[in-house]
Amino acid sequence: MSQVVTTVAELRAALAALKPARIGMVPTMGALHDGHVSLVNEARSRATHVVVSIFVNPTQFAPNEDFDAYPRTLDADLKTLDDRAAIVFTPTAREMYPEGFATGITVGGPSTGLETDFRPHFFAGVATVVAKLLIAAMPDIAMFGEKDYQQLLVIKQLVRDLALPVDIIGVPTLREADGLALSSRNAYLSTEERGIAARLNVILKEAIAAARTSGDLRAAEATAIEALWKAGFAHVDYVAIRDAETLDHITALERPARILAAAKVGKTRLIDNMAV
Ligand code: PAF
Q1: Whose C-alpha lies nearest to ligand 1, atom 3?
Q2: Ligand 1 pocket, 30 CB below 6 A?
Q3: Atom of ligand 1 nearest to the CA of 155
Q4: In angstroms, rounded to a whole number, what is the distance separating the alpha carbons of residues 218 and 252?
Q5: What pTM did the predictor assign?
Q6: Looking at the chain, which residues constitute the CATH 3.40.50.620 domain(s)?
Q7: Nearest protein Cα to ligand 1, atom 6
Q8: Could you name the CATH architecture of 184-270?
Q9: HSE of 111 in the Cβ direction (CA atoms, 13 Å)?
Q10: Residue of 36, 121, 235, 249 marked active site
Q11: To which CATH superfamily is domain 3-171 assigned?
């Protein structure tokens, strides 16, 4: 069974009792699924002990987003983690943002555009909470899913720029049999929406094939956007082929590239990405 701690002081005391062991951290917002378990397993294979944080971070949600509805399944999460995690950190919002909290971290570089065009508040909220979590736990390594590819690059930039002594490890996306990327938000989908959602990964694969064959990246993106509308997506925020390391705009596949997309099925916003 994991040791559950709720304050930074308790977390540090619990970790001090494990040191000098190599510590792996998996920051999450709970509602754990097999994708999170793969992050934990990867951490276990690279570290002696794993600490998982479960915190639905209010500062990365805009007022019109799903903060209140976001699934909170702590009992099930603790069962899922069982003896996979030595420590589970479940702070309150007051613990993470005490009265008078007035610090925010803004990351430039890879946070420009894409998600930021549609969720301008998002990466400052993520960067601030991830910095707090990493400074609280001081792990040797921390795992983040490639599913949130832009987030992964923003966190790598944050850690590099602040010289935090932790290795950030990206873990490949886990998918359902039909290719839908695992996400806690998939729980919102009705049966009909779930069918539409599965088209996202197929359309991205088609766009990759088109981009490789024609070399015309803008045409491949435009065709994918049209295909998503036709498949029944309620809104397409973006489909973009970018430099895989910087997310800079590119016009040719001369360096490693990534296709990234965000689209809404009904009210549920899905994101996905793949290597091109
Ligand atoms: O990817 C997530 O679950 C969250 O954005 C994270 C990294 C735990 C920060 O709240």
Answers
A1: 28
A2: no
A3: 7
A4: 10
A5: 0.97
A6: 3-171
A7: 28
A8: 2-Layer Sandwich (3.30)
A9: 18
A10: 36
A11: HUPs (3.40.50.620)
